[in-house]
């Protein structure tokens, strides 16, 4: 088969597209949706088990390369965004500094003299006070008797903690009166056999029971991968294996593992917890962008980058700013943009109960725009302008008071439209119910079969999608600087809004014979939407 | 009431046998976890000459969690509020089970010598301490004379 005939086949694939919407476009779409669809986003929804497997693979890979324990590998990966190569490079360059940086090893190998209960008596009160105050400077009187020098070669077999550390200076100093195999735990002040003691690489030694009680307290506070040594001013990290060796209660072990898993996922740039209530799904994407992810389990749709509601074309920072602002000013704005408006002609009070901005007064039959209350006749063409906010050109010369009023006016302009579209979205379900009812009536009267009317649901879904994007164009416009780019944006926004209102109007009044017209309108609205996104929703690197 | 942990008994014994200069901590006769504490104002501080009463309580999970300490005597200090609550890291996130009653009380004594207005609890006091230290120190002296000196 020749290449030409191939082309023709792909042309036929988009048989519903009209002549102007030529097959070339369609071809490109088949070839590379990344380039043609600004919202294209590749991601997968994973279960907890799948993610555990994924993380374990990373851990195992690192284990085999560096010959280290899984527990240590997890800490190193956690601190390096799970990028194996970075860990390996750093390890080969300077293993010691990597271990210090990740708090596996203390910055310098000495033991704090104020640690031991018995030792405090020996030190002067001034020294103890210096060690006790919040001053971050390390206490000066340090007696480094034994420094455990660890060479990178021997690290492989090095465990991150040790049992009954006979090398620590504290043992011999403090317990001169005790027999060699017995030690006093500085936390519970009981004398126990040496083999009951555990310490991390810092050498601070405590008994098993105290460690385990301490771990349970920390786990109870929700702390897992960040648990530190019990000694004062010592920030050496407690690795997973020691926690799981010493915590015996099943409930606490499980809790620890859950919290640690959360920390691992949060430290992994490609993973996001689905924000849906009680949803266990984790979304994974190699592209870390402000794109829409939809959870396959609970249907929650969210921005992959920030986890909030999807907000194209606005970016994560701006939408956060906008939502904070709305939370601040919402009461005023709610008060001012009340739910009802008067008909501009006969002044009867109207409550909006459907999605369309093209209103027809039931009393006087006047057609007007809900947004600007102007005659709808002026809204049919591209001169639709009620989405655009008009700056007062003389603002710089006005008084502070007037400027403040102008600022509020500007904010309310955008807020009203944001809120209006948000309400329209909420009314979507009602619109859909009405649509279903209307279709039933039509079918009962013998005007078309139920299948004939199905296209209306597709149209309604597309309408919702377009309205959603339109809603999020308002925060974008609000924070935009005046200029030609803003003019262009607001022009495209107006175009989109006009087509959406057209579509909404047509859906509400559709007959079976209107199929072609409606599909045409759907196509136009979606084209406007993608054009706007292509121009103003840059695909981040 | 459950029996007193050995750690608390040991600490109490040492507090009584080898008291820290300027600090006096005596357990309540009805509750061995509740201590009546007296800290004398450090020399060369605006609290010099003052006798400050504090209360100290060891919670159920001590030493896994920090003791609760509060000034009973009124004091003009940027890190201590009207209710006598103390803003001190070792009583909160920097608590370590290896710390003790005596080290905590030493820290509190050190806090009197070196107020830290950049991490304030009593906002008005901290503000004055930063803007006009001389005036703040004068206030602290006056409060010490008024509330912490017994006639």
Automatic annotation (TrEMBL), chain A:
GO biological process: protein ubiquitination
Domain RING-type positions: 181-390, 185-229
Enzyme class: transferase
GO cellular component: nucleus
Enzyme Commission no: 2.3.2.31
Reaction(s) catalysed by this chain's protein: [E2 ubiquitin-conjugating enzyme]-S-ubiquitinyl-L-cysteine + [acceptor protein]-L-lysine = [E2 ubiquitin-conjugating enzyme]-L-cysteine + [acceptor protein]-N(6)-ubiquitinyl-L-lysine
KW Transmembrane (keyword) present: no
Record key words, sorted: Coiled coil, Metal-binding, Nucleus, Repeat, Transferase, Ubl conjugation pathway, Zinc, Zinc-finger
Cross-referenced Pfam families: Ariadne, IBR, IBR_1, UBA_ARIH2_N
Annotated localization: Nucleus
Bilayer-spanning residue ranges: none
Molecular function via GO: ubiquitin protein ligase activity; zinc ion binding
Major place of residence: nucleus
Region (Disordered): 159-178
Segments forming a coiled coil: 493-535
Family: Belongs to the RBR family. Ariadne subfamily.
Protein name in UniProt: RBR-type E3 ubiquitin transferase
Organism per entry: Musca domestica
From TrEMBL, chain B:
Keywords assigned: ATP-binding, Nucleotide-binding, Transferase, Ubl conjugation pathway
Active site: 87 (glycyl thioester intermediate)
The name this protein goes by in its record: UBC core domain-containing protein
Signal peptide range in chain numbering: none
InterPro entries, sorted: UBC (IPR000608), UBQ-conjugating_AS (IPR023313), UBQ-conjugating_enzyme/RWD (IPR016135)
Every UBC core domain range: 3-149
Keyword Nucleotide-binding annotated: yes
GO cellular component, one term: UBC13-MMS2 complex
TM segment ranges: none
MF terms (GO), sorted A to Z: ATP binding; transferase activity
Similarity section: Belongs to the ubiquitin-conjugating enzyme family.
Gene (name only): 106085301
GO biological process terms held by the UniProt record: protein ubiquitination
Pfam families found in the cross-reference section: UQ_con
